[in-house]
Amino acid sequence: MLENKALSRGIIEKSATILAEITIRKSQYLEQTLEELNKKNIIYGFQKEIRRGKYNRIDDVLYKLMPSIEFTNEMKKANKRAADIHTKFPVRLPAHRKL
Predict the structure, then answer these.
(1) What is the pLDDT of residue 77?
(2) CA-atom Rg of the chain in angstroms
(3) Nearest partner of 61 among 86, 38, 39, 34, judged by Cα
(4) Which of 13, 37, 87, 96 could form a cystine bridge with 42, CB 3.0-4.6 A?
(5) CB 49 within 8 A of CB 61
(6) Phi, psi (degrees; rounded to nearest 5) at 86
(7) pTM of this structure
(8) How far apart are the first and last CA of the chain?
(9) What is the structure's pLDDT at 56?
(10) How far apart are CA 46 and CA 30, in angstroms?
(11) Separation CA 48–CA 88 (nearest Å)
């Protein structure tokens, strides 16, 4: 089953330096970026939820991201490869010596 992720513009602005530099039309830039990810089949799509506060002012925008099937399959393959590497070449810690 595909798991959808939600992220808000406020969180992105605090954590992403590229969006912190853009002061005008932040939502439009973010939506263009999400559309680009959609065209490259990284995400299947996204839903936008505008959160309004006092006096109908926009406080935040929540974006719900849906991963594409191709992206999900690639992530599963990558996780399987990583698990196989750990089972074939386990990290062995040196034995403790009793003093």
Answers:
(1) 94
(2) 21
(3) 34
(4) 37
(5) yes
(6) -70, -30
(7) 0.55
(8) 53
(9) 84
(10) 11
(11) 44
Vertex 9 angle, CA 6 and 67, to 5°: 35
Check if the beta carbon of residue 2 is closer than 8 Å to that of residue 52. no
Whole-number Å distance between alpha carbons of 17 and 11: 11
Beta bridge partners of 58: 52
According to the model, what pLDDT value does residue 20 have? 45
**Residue at 97 is within a domain:** no
Write down the pLDDT at residue 16: 56
Going 47 to 68 to 71 to 90, the CA torsion angle's sign is positive
- Which residue in the block uniquely carries the two structure tokens 């010596």? 97
- Domain limits at 84? 5-88
Asked, for residue 99, whether it belongs to a domain, the answer is: no
Helix (H, G, I), strand (E, B) or coil at 97: coil
pLDDT tens profile 19-72: 445 444 677 888 888 999 899 888 898 888 888 888 887 777 888 889 889 989
